[in-house]
Amino acid sequence: MSEEVPWQRLNSRLIWVNALRFAISLLPTLLSILVFGQRSNVVEIWAPYIATAAGVFVSTMDFVRWLRTRYRITEEVIEIHTGRFIHKFRSIPRDRIRTVDNKAKLRHRLAGLRVVYISPGGSGTVIRLDAVTKLMAEEIRSRLLGVAITPKDKATTEIVLARVRWYWIFYNMVNIWGLIVAAFVPLTLHGILQIVNVDLFDLIRNIVDWDSLGIWRSAALVLAALSVLSVISLTASFVKENWNFELVRIKTESDTSLLTRQGLFTTREIYREDGRIRGIHLSQPFLWRWMGLTETSVISTGLAGWSLSSSEEASTILPRAPISEAIRVAGAVLQDDSRPLECKLELHPHAALMRRVIWALAIPSGMSGLAFWLGSTGALPMAAWPLPLALIPATLTFALFAYRSLGHALVGEYLVFRCGLSRQTTVALQRRGIIGWKLRQSIFQRCTRMIDVGVSTAAGEGFYHSPDFGYTQAIAFSVDATPMLIAQFLDHEADPWRDSKGHPTKRLVG
Amino acid sequence: MTTNDNVGPVPPARREPMRHKQDRARGVRGEARSSPSRSESNAQQGRTVERASSELPPAVPPAVSLRPPRQRVERRAIWWWTIRVALTALVGLAAPATVYATVSAARPWLEPALILLTIAFAITGAVMPTWRYHVHRWETTDTAVYSLTGWVVREWRIVPISRIQSVDVVRGPLQQLLNLATVKVVTASREGEIKIEGMDVIRADEVANALTVLTQRTPGDAT
Known about the structure:
Number of helices of chain A: 17
Mean pLDDT of chain B: 76
Largest sheet of chain A: 7 strands, antiparallel
Structural class of chain A: alpha+beta
Oligomer: heterodimer
Largest sheet of chain B: 4 strands, antiparallel
Order of helices and strands of chain B: HHHHEEHHEEEEHEEH
Radius of gyration of chain B: 24 Å
Shape of chain B: elongated
Radius of gyration of chain A: 29 Å
Strand content of chain A: 25-35%
Helix content of chain B: 40-55%
Helix content of chain A: 40-55%
Low-confidence stretches of chain B: 1-61
Mean pLDDT of chain A: 84
Distance between the termini of chain B: 35 Å
Number of strands of chain A: 20
Shape of chain A: flat
């Protein structure tokens, strides 16, 4: 059977796309020769040569790849022969295929093409068809996953769960890494301007008189300029990534899927089957928590472990957004009325707070002690030893926040875990997603009757936990979550509700 | 085990799980509880915490605990752990000892480090194997695999049979020498696997076979 299926090439429009890329990559060199033709020497205008060489190389290689790539979809498998110099062969059995997503860069969109990613989920092999027509991409998807999506009647098959709001730009403008990224902007600009023989740094030197400003004002000026650049570049990247972002629930033949569409130049479409979703994961780094923001993702099995873009995982269903919006979306995504993220969590025992306070006191004291010892040997100035102690108010505050973020609950079919200081994570996981329990207790936790509780699951990160439950809390929690599993391992002799043989005592029966 | 683990006053929420005691009793006798009533009662959990606690009989200390698994590992495992510490110590001490012998400039700070390292290995080698032997336990039932491991930090793991992907028997060179084996219960999550170390080879094969048969008989998609 499978021998009869013919091998196919990728779409031939790629030839034209690459021819155009080839032509465009010649431009910088041509321009620089035209503009500075007479006085140009190789050393001065190396940048355009490199740009041209890179462009020519990439487009030629892509053409070679097109020449050497064949794929076919048989009854049993999808296979691809590819590789520029080294021949590569990949195949995925069709019953293993879990995700078929697509992505399109600007050049693909202009040519009406889509890049299709086919994967068995997790960290398995990915087959990338770069590129096929938009129609073909839809067809491959519906063939491989047995789903029919008819673009004609979108209104009846799609329900919009969330759309990006324009004011979310403000939440995404500030980032600690932004400054570092911003520092690269002038460097890149400098490189580009060198193509036309303009020295950016010289230009700035002419405008700003650093010597008269003095070092502090100069530093402040640079920092301010970088901040502005950082805000601009972060805003631009947010707009670029999340332009027209929408999260929709789309009906397919067998099931429903959550689909996100997003992107200004490069567009991405990622599907997540509802039947494989096991929960929701909210992630809030320290700063965002105070701004009331969160990143929202689904906990799902069979999602691609790779991501379609470097910045975003396939599981993310909402960009950084207000927590109220995330909770609303979570309610819509989890199709029951449990609303696990809205319930009040059980706090952990006060011993958990004590443990954090002790650490908050011990770490600065230890540092101080070390500084004292180093001071006595002369490696550090003697006056330095009390300095770490000044950190204690801060560490105590952190201890309190770390304790406040601890919590758990059992709501309907969901376990809820919350923990984390630098990044608070809140996880709502369905009980049917539990594939194992892991309880952990250090010798100190044993003395204070606390225990870490975690569940392993096939979905998402594979393991979710919260530290420092009270021991009885932990047992009650695990028994309530999976009574059939845990009850057989309970110690009935210590249980006032049962006699030594495990039968309920009279008190319970009566 | 009868002591209350409360530190400070009892917040109402902490007594709340007691409400499910009767459910639990049913669970043990093998009756599936009716899930609709369960999700109803839990859906209101946030709001009914206070009410629920007032329904409880007062002042009964919540003292249920996990019992340890029933089976112990082989006594020979003590030797296995001891030899492993010895080998680790040999490798771990060889490098700094060589430096100590050859580079005299490093001796002032390397000497205390080397002494501390040796003491740490000695204590571990003396204490850990026996301690582990007294802690490590395992058990399999018709529905689950249960293990307790560790020494300073203890770890209880429970995996339902229906979620087992495969059961492997692993034997390293040292274990072969001592006629020991490790049974590895693999699930779809890396964090979820159970390793029972220090079992007798024949026993390990028996257990692995029995678990494999049981796993095949038990419906479940392992995810």
